[in-house]
């Protein structure tokens, strides 16, 4: 496999659900993910940012094979995930979930939770597994004494370390982190982010890092993709998106990050707060009802993700117009 | 809401058909009805004659379809014992059972609602433990035994109440108490559980933060939400009471459909048994339908969902 | 100096649990002046929410509350009759909770729930109540307010419900609002809007605002003064700018350092962390509760630590002689 | 970062403390244990043959009812056929326990399989199972059981089979909703991602977490089955005489209730104590295994 081959590739992935509103109300289609194409090269971290209901977790589930795309293809290491067996898939991609309380089975010891992937894949003898579990626990900063403990005896941060150990023990090609720190206190979040950064540099992990907080994402991600209502609205190198975001929603998200600087007042995101109903998305650009730069074209035509300036891509008519105006004659 | 009602109605209809089929089939597959009718020591020829006479030799589906077709028209066949049609027989006994079940439900609610609410508000005090204790002990008593004890004390020893028959309201006192007593624990637990959950909810804290007095918090904000599942359970309990009337009516010789069912079963009067099974099952289907609609109507999240 | 709207001294909350007494809030002293925003900040389990509930008298029934005094506009909440307390609650002091999805009663309309405190506290008749509800709904940025009155909570989104909660708190024109993590359950872009609204209304009506949060970013942007809580105690309090610029307690410094900041924190450069775990508050703690996790801890920290007061009401519970420097490799 | 919040030793001790602190659970377990032992060793404990009729010794009251009429050979007196009441009660425990246990097993297997399948797979499976549950709930248990026993003939096997096929609904309802909750937890998603097969997830991840709920429902249904058997036998359509079913004994006692009311007291009380013990055991186990809360 060449190094040019991306580890993760999404080709125009669509996921539609049919949602019952209440027990007997008619079902309506919900476009959770509306045509997403992204790729993550080996050794890189793609940060996926968006608010609740934007489809980022659905996307993660499709990459993990827990959901099947309605349309499009997910390829891992060049192979369509739909054609992989469950064991093969598990060797390629592993998750770390959000809630450290529900992500560990309360009736199993830490050792058996971390060792489960080895047991399922029939790797090594019982003694070898034990050694590897101990190594893994040490790698994520837990002591050997934790092996015999049950999840209820650990703190939130320790549990999240266990989840990371379980995800890494099979040495997967790709790690999916779905809001791994958003259920944690800030001081614990910092510990987990530091751990992930450390593992990143030591193991050269390739990962998809999902969060609603841009400040967290930029700690780890080499590239960032911003999602809004099921679509990627901006994608580019982290530094560029953080400094020169082109999509007004990315700028709004960035402004919403409240840094602990007492001299700055509250930001004016100029986004309003009328979050659209995902069951009845607005026509044209889905973001137009909240957009401060909206003009007529936005209400009828959905913008496509394309390069306007620099190395990043944005799906915005205003960005396109501005870029066009800036081209020297 | 209309859509909800229609869908729920359709479900009730399908369940109704399934239940009627089961009520019919059960008696056919659990043994040879012809032998049961003719008696254990009847000659093979006699059994064959009966099989012929009742059409038991035809495919079971055909028998069922025919029975259902007649049943829909109100014809449940004729009793093998009484010189009457099954439908008439049941209709003449039904009022007794409905009265009994109605009274039973009222008694159950009179016991369970206040007790459940007080237990929830005084959680983990002796009131709560006492109420739960009564519920646990109450549920452990066999209802026929409880009935017999009542007969012994209030009927035989004290002579306050008549011990059998269904002529006056006095005849209903003990059966209704017995029936209500056994429904009360379930209703009480649900009321208590619902109230406990609601009282610890965020919106009750909001109501208290508004400065509302305790009585308004409990009656307006808590009870309204806690009572919704109780309403549904009430109809389920009413259905159970119709079914449980077999035991109670037999103990007190109350001439309702329960007693009729027992008589018919003992005498192998199968058209009557089938008719009663169908009727009680349909009652239950209709009651749950009503409960669901009432539930939806009480809960704005369903009504306007 | 005028009477502060809220003046709490040495508040303690104890909760009996399976293996002893949980000292959830210990010796908390704070004041809120009219027109002032005080933020109480800390991590989960530090007692910040219980502090606000203790002020409102909404603690769970098993909890025990003690204090030297707890004055609301000069009147002590401790020796108040339940009736007098009810007169104040929802009227002169109101509360906004964290979960907009569950804090409104699903069985009653928005209008009914909004007008309820107004009518209950005898502020006017039903018509006036409805008028005020419409006025406030519009004020908190809800369009078509008249139509919203007949809607049920489940028909509104989380952001809208939190606006309704805010409008409800304002119905009787309170002197003090307690907001317990009012934006934690909301999306980040909505959070800024709601905070804007709260700050604006607070200025407009000249109320005191006690805002409980875990987010130092929110504190920095909205608070006039801040109280940092750790393990049930206020470990540092003072004007926001002073506390952020010159934190005197190592915990405050630790909290500030572990926040990722765009364009400052970079991949590969670790964040500051606070090692170890929060101590158990069951039984009670002797000395500084933070000493097990503190890089500067010395032998005297095991003994009771006095509160030191500096300029401008800046107070801290630490024996270090100077401000705590950042331990980050390249602080901005 | 190296501390475990509660080391294993104290944790176990805490659990043991919770069990011992629950006096209801202790009493219930003791009573149930005694009844079980009594049932198992009935031939060694019972002073008389429970079927032996001594027509000269009919309806002898126990000493605590009428000391003068009592006979020291019959501790709890004799019934209307002169059979030793104590021996019949001891043997009766066998019937109640056997029917309770077997019915619980039959209905438990049916209900758990249906409920877990509905809760885990959802969709069509859930629709079908929900329909089955609704249909089953619409059938009046006592009447159907009576009618079927009347046709099939009253015997222990028939009663177990009929009750087992009728009493699975609560298992299904509870297991369905419990599985639905578990299914959405992240550790199930993690197990799927790790490559666990569906049976492995059901057995390794879901089932262990269902056990507390299962025990509670099972105890409740066992009690229910015992009560129903007694009722069926009481109505003459359950276990047939001369078997010493407690329900049957109440029915037989009913005939002589007017003159010898004590006969009715004993078997009823026996049912009551057994059912109470089972229910209290279930409640106690539920309380002990209740989640301790997150932190």
Give structural notes.
The complex is a heterotetramer of chains A (about 325), B (about 300), C (about 325) and D (about 300). By secondary structure, chain A is of the alpha/beta class. Helices cover about 35% and strands about 20% of the residues of chain A. Chain A has one domain (about 10-325): P-loop containing nucleotide triphosphate hydrolases (Rossmann fold, 3-Layer(aba) Sandwich). Chain A has helices at about 55-65, 85-90, 110-120, 125-140, 155-170, 185-205, 215-220, 240-245, 250-255, 295-300, 315-325; strands at about 10-20, 25-40, 45-50, 70-75, 80, 95, 175-180, 205-210, 225-230, 230-235, 305, 315. In chain A, the strands form two sheets. In chain A, strands 6-7-8-3-9-10-12-11 form an eight-stranded mixed beta sheet, sandwiched between helices. A four-stranded antiparallel beta sheet of chain A has the order 2-1-4-5, with helices on one face. In chain A, α4 crosses α5 (about 155-170). By secondary structure, chain B is an all-alpha fold. The radius of gyration of chain B is 23 Å and the shape is globular. Chain B starts with a helix and ends with a helix. Chain C contains ten helices and 13 strands. An eight-stranded mixed beta sheet of chain C has the order 7-8-9-3-10-11-13-12, sandwiched between helices. Chain C starts with 5 loop residues before the first strand and ends in a 16-residue tail after the last strand. Chain D has a single domain (about 20-290), classed as Orthogonal Bundle (MetI-like fold). Helices cover about 70% and strands about 0% of the residues of chain D. Chain D has helices at about 10-20, 25-40, 40-45, 85-120, 125-140, 140-150, 155-165, 170-185, 185-195, 200-235, 245-255, 260-290. The interface between A and C is large, with 49 and 51 residues.
Q: State the low-pLDDT regions of chain C, or none.
A: none
Instruction: Give Rg of chain B in angstroms.
Output: 23 Å
Please provide the count of β strands of chain B: 0
Structural shape of chain C: globular
The rough form of chain B would be described as globular
What's the overall average pLDDT of chain C, rounded?
Answer: 89
CATH fold-level label of the domain at 90-268 in chain B = MetI-like fold
Secondary-structure element string of chain C: EEEHEEEHEHHHHEHEHEEHHEE
Q: Kindly report the greatest chain-chain contact and the residue count on each side.
A: A-C, 49 and 51 residues
* Uncertain segments of chain B: none
- Helix amount of chain B: over 70%
Q: Mean pLDDT across all residues of chain B, rounded?
A: 86
- The chain-level structural class of chain C is alpha/beta
Record the strand order, biggest sheet of chain C. 7-8-9-3-10-11-13-12
Count of helical stretches of chain B: 13
Give the class-level CATH name of the domain at 90-268 in chain B.
Mainly Alpha
The main sheet of chain C comes to:
8 strands, mixed
Oligomer: heterotetramer
First-last Cα distance of chain B: 9 Å
Which structural class fits the helix and strand makeup of chain B? mainly alpha
């Amino acid at each position: 496999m060449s190094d040019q081959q991306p580890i993760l590739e999404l080709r125009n992935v669509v996921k539609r659900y049919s949602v019952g509103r209440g027990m007997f109300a008619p079902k309506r289609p919900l476009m959770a993910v509306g045509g997403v194409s992204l790729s993550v090269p080996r050794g890189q971290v793609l940060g996926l940012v968006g608010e609740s209901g934007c489809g980022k977790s659905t996307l993660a589930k499709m990459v993990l094979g827990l959901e099947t795309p309605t349309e499009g293809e997910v390829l891992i290491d060049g192979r369509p995930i739909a054609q992989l067996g469950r064991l093969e898939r598990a060797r390629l991609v592993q998750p770390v979930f959000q809630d450290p309380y529900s992500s560990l089975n309360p009736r199993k010891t830490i050792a058996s939770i971390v060792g489960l992937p080895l047991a399922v894949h029939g790797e090594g003898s019982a003694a070898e597994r034990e050694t590897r579990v101990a190594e893994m626990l040490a790698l994520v900063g837990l002591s050997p004494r934790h092996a015999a403990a049950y999840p209820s005896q650990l703190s939130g941060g320790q549990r999240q370390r266990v989840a990371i150990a379980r995800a890494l023990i099979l040495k997967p090609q790709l790690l999916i982190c779905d809001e791994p720190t958003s259920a944690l206190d800030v001081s614990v979040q910092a510990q987990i982010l530091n751990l992930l950064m450390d593992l990143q540099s030591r193991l050269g992990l390739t990962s998809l890092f999902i969060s609603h907080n841009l400040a967290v994402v930029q700690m780890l991600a080499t590239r960032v993709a911003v999602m809004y209502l099921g679509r990627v609205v901006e994608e580019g190198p982290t530094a560029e998106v953080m400094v020169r975001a082109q999509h007004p929603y990315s700028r709004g998200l960035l402004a919403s990050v409240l840094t602990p600087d007492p001299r700055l007042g509250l930001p004016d995101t100029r986004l309003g707060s009328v979050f659209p109903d995902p069951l009845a998305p607005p026509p044209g650009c889905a973001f137009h009802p909240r957009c401060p730069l909206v003009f007529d074209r936005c209400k009828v035509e959905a913008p496509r993700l394309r390069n306007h300036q620099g190395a990043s891509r944005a799906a915005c008519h205003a960005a396109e117009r501005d870029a066009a105006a800036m081209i020297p004659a | 809401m209309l859509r909800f009602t229609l869908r729920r109605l359709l479900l009730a209809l399908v369940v109704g058909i399934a239940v009627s089929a089961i009520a019919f089939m059960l008696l056919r597959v659990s043994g040879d009805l012809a032998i049961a009718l003719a008696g254990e020591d009847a000659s093979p020829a006699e059994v064959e004659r009966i099989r012929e006479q009742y059409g038991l030799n035809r495919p079971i589906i055909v028998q069922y379809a025919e029975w259902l077709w007649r049943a829909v028209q109100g014809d449940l066949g004729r009793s093998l014992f009484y010189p009457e049609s099954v439908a008439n027989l049941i209709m003449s006994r039904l009022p007794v059972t409905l009265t009994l079940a109605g009274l039973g439900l009222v008694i159950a609610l009179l016991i369970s609602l206040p007790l459940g609410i007080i237990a929830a508000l005084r959680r983990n005090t002796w009131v709560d433990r006492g109420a739960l204790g009564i519920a646990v002990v109450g549920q452990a008593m066999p209802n026929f035994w409880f009935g017999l004890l009542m007969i012994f004390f209030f009927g035989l020893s004290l002579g306050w109440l008549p011990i059998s028959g269904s002529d006056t309201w006095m005849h209903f006192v003990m059966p209704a108490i017995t029936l209500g007593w056994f429904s009360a624990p379930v209703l009480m637990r649900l009321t208590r559980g619902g109230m406990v959950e609601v009282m610890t909810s965020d919106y009750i804290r909001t109501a208290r933060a508004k400065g509302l007095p305790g009585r308004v918090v409990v009656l307006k904000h808590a009870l309204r939400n806690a009572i919704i599942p109780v309403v549904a359970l009430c109809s389920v309990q009413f259905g159970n009471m119709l079914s449980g009337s077999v035991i109670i009516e037999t103990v007190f010789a109350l001439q309702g459909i329960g007693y009729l069912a027992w008589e018919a079963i003992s005498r192998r009067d199968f058209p009557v048994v089938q008719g009663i099974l169908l009727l009680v099952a349909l009652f239950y289907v209709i009651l749950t339908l009503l409960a669901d609609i009432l539930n939806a109507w009480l809960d704005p999240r369903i009504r306007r969902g | 100096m005028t009477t502060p709207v809220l003046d709490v001294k040495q508040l303690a909350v104890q909760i009996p649990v399976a293996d002893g007494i949980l000292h959830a809030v210990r010796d908390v002293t704070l004041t809120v002046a009219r027109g002032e925003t005080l933020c109480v900040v800390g991590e989960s389990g530090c007692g910040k929410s219980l502090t606000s509930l203790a002020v409102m008298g909404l603690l769970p029934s098993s909890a025990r509350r003690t204090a030297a005094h707890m004055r609301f506009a000069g009147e002590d909440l401790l020796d108040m009759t339940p009736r007098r307390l009810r007169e104040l609650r929802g009227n002169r002091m109101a509360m906004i909770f964290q979960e907009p999805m569950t804090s409104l009663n699903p069985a009653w309309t928005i209008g009914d729930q909004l007008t309820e405190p107004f009518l209950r506290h005898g502020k006017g008749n039903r018509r006036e109540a409805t008028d005020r509800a419409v006025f406030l709904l519009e004020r908190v940025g809800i369009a078509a307010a008249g139509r919203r009155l007949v809607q049920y909570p489940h028909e509104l989104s989380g952001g809208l419900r939190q606006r309704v909660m805010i409008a409800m708190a304002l119905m009787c024109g309170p002197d003090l609002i307690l907001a317990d993590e009012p934006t934690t359950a909301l999306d980040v872009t909505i959070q800024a809007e709601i905070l804007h609204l709260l700050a604006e209304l607070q200025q407009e009506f000249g109320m005191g605002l006690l805002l409980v949060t875990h987010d130092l970013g929110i504190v920095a942007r909205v608070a006039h003064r801040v109280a940092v809580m750790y393990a049930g105690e206020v470990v540092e309090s003072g004007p926001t700018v002073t506390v952020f610029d010159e934190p005197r307690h190592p915990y405050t410094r630790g909290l500030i350092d572990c926040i990722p900041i765009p364009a400052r924190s970079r991949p590969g450069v670790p964040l500051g962390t606070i090692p170890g775990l929060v101590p158990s508050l069951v039984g009670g703690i002797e000395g500084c509760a933070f000493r097990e996790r503190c890089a500067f801890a010395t032998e005297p920290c095991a003994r009771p630590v006095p509160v030191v007061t500096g300029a401008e009401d800046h107070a801290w519970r630490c024996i270090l002689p100077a401000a705590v420097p950042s331990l980050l490799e390249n602080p901005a | 970062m190296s501390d475990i919040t509660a080391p294993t030793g104290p944790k176990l001790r805490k659990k043991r403390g919770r069990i011992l602190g629950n006096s209801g659970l202790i009493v219930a377990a003791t009573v149930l244990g005694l009844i079980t032992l009594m049932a198992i060793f009935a031939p060694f404990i019972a002073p008389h043959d429970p079927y032996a009729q001594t027509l000269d010794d009919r309806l002898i009251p126990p000493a605590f009812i009428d000391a003068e009429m009592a006979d020291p050979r019959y501790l709890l007196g004799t019934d209307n056929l002169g059979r030793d009441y104590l021996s019949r009660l001891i043997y009766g425990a066998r019937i109640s326990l056997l029917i309770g246990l077997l019915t619980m097993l039959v209905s438990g297997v049916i209900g758990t399989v249906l409920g877990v399948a509905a809760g885990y797979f959802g969709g069509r499976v859930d629709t079908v199972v929900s329909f089955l549950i609704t249909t089953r709930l619409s059938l009046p248990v006592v009447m159907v059981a009576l009618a079927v026993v009347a046709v099939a003939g009253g015997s222990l096997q028939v009663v177990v089979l009929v009750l087992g096929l009728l009493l699975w609904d609560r298992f299904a309802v509870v297991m369905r909703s419990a599985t639905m909750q578990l299914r959405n937890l992240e550790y199930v998603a993690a197990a799927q991602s790790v490559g666990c097969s569906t049976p492995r997830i059901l057995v390794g991840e879901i089932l262990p977490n269902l056990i507390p709920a299962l025990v509670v429902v099972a105890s409740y249904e066992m009690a229910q089955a015992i009560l129903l058997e007694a009722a069926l036998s009481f109505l003459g359509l359950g276990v047939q005489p001369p078997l010493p079913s407690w329900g049957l004994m109440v029915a037989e006692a009913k005939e002589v209730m007017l003159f010898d009311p004590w006969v009715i007291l004993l078997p009823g009380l026996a049912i009551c104590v057994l059912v109470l013990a089972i229910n209290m055991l279930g409640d106690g186990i539920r309380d002990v295994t209740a989640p301790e809360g997150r932190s």
